[in-house]
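I am still getting used to backbone structure tokens and would like to learn alongside you. To get us started, please write out a protein record for me. Start from the sequence, derive the backbone structure tokens from it, and show both lines together. Once you have written the record down, we can walk along the chain together:
***
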Amino acid sequence: MSDPGVTLKELEGRPLTDLHGVGEQTSASLSKVGINTILDLISYYPRRYIDRSKEATVDSLQSGEEGMVLVNIEKVRSRRMRSRKTLVEVTAADSTGSLRLVFFNQPWREKQLNQGRDAVVFGKADVYQGQLQMTNPIVDLVGDRTGRIVAVYPQSGVAKLHSWDVDRLVAEALRRVMKVRGFADPVPSEIRKKYRLVDRSSAYKGIHRPDSMNEVAEARRRLVFDELFRIQLELLQRKKMIEKTSIGINHSKEENLTEIFLKNLSFELTDSQKRVMDEIRKDLQKEIPMHRLLQGDVGSGKTIVAVFTLLKAVQGGHQGALMAPTEVLAEQHYLGISKFLGDLIVEDSTTLLGDRPLQVDLLTNRTSSVDRKRINRGLEEGTVDFIIGTHSLIQESVSFNSLGAVVIDEQHRFGVEQRASLKEKNRDGRVPDVLVMTATPIPRTAAMTVYGDLDVSVLDELPPGRIPIVTSWEADNAKVWEAVKEEVKSGRQAYVVCPLIEDSEKLEVHSAEEVYKDLSDGPLRGLELGLLHGRLDKDKKEETMSSFRSGKIDVLVATTVIEVGVDVPNASIVVILDAARFGIAQLHQLRGRVGRGEHPSQCLLVGDATTKEAEERIKAMVRTTDGFELAEVDLELRGEGTVMGERQKGRNDLRLASLRRDKEWVEIARTEASEILMERDLASIKELAEEVTLFLGESEADYLLKS
């Protein structure tokens, strides 16, 4: 499958000291930026390139516009200003003209920008006293490279690392690899040919030492494919292993309980709910344990799907468990689900009549010792059918008679080990079917990369009759509090959300305690206000939430503890202070706390946007209530780091690939990985398996297999 050559595993085993001129000091400097081996070095990709055949010249710079030019440093001087700050003035030039560079309070620039050195400078040009200049530009030192294309590497002042240092070492590493036998290429030649991918030797040469920008593009295509291909191989092999080694539960095909449950609902199911239930129904009829992700926007009806799943398990004489990340959310689920289940009856041969009411219980840290003993006994004997709880469900004292299905809500909030513990609760080794849910929609390509080992279902429509939430961006506080008073006057309730608990001198943002006091004494005087934040003790939290649910509290001033799980249908307005400090996903979750009843609802975003990105976030929130559309915007604004963090993996394998730019390659990598693993296990393909393990790490791989 592979060409003879140097493998990436071999390079991972080679220290930097194998290279000429690399001693302990240089190794220590490189280690500060994560370069410890030859593999790390060649994976330290340039952040940009200078095309000397097309580079801008000094005389082409326009005042008031940004530009990037390659110049030679001619003169450097430093002086103290009256404010005692340092001013470094640099005279630089190319063949077309002279450029003045000014650096305020950056005294280290005097040593960095030595006379005669070449540098790439990027910044806004302007004219001062008849001289073209840039103030505090971005500077990349490129050494004496004379090629047409100059690679510019990330530089670090802390590590005392310069672009030309990396360039020199990379050049030597590549030269020595090529001199031996080039790079081994584990990607099958038919795949390379199919997608016109260059071989790996050409890819590494092209990314580091290109002769043209077209060569850079070809190299990037190949290395992007490699990154995504490894991830998909890893995820699909995990899925294959779960299916191969896990003993599932043969669930009953009867639908008595689910039919009664669905028939008793006071509303019609959406088409997407029906579709997802069909997918789950098919999963439960297989001997392979279900391992499915349910993505659903705020208010899309995930809870109904969760109850349906657990009832299918109970129908066959098994038990169902729903695990939530917080007590507030667990209690909310318990209250809501108990109402849904109503008078459902389950078969029980130990009773006189052969049946009994379906038993639902709640298990959290707040559960009394008496109730805890009763619940644990019921779980062990099988008389508790539904258990809803927090991480308390995975304590050693908890044992199930026959756990048939598990629903994990807001799964990203649980660690891998926690999720695995719940799946391992059956004493007979059978693996329950697992449905993990998230109310934070992520784009399709991201889902394929983060959750690629799960089958994915999507709830992409809201129940009929739901009135869209009207969102606005407000600067006038007086107008905001008048809107709140109007809602309360109409018999409704309100949330006011703040970023901090206490006042902070460092961050000029509203704190919950400060806002609570100011509103109580000021614009909302006469209304009943409550305060909720993470530092309150459990009893106080519950007391406050109960008062809000019952309508005793008109306005709940809170931190983001209400982000998930708080469901009060009478709440019709949410005010989010300093909204620009929140991310899109968080803003969307907070907005979802209203619009849950029959009344028109509104979300008021308050505060200035101090950055362009913050402004785009707020505008997107005003423009749409579609969580999936907002997820795309979030991915565009913040990059894939936000979703890749969900993978809980050791080494970040996305150094070049972008889930935004490389959507096509995510799909291709998925297809080709699936084709390869259809008939073979990854372990039988030595070269590919080695690379997957290399970039994942054996300990991380074992860990991930538990998820």
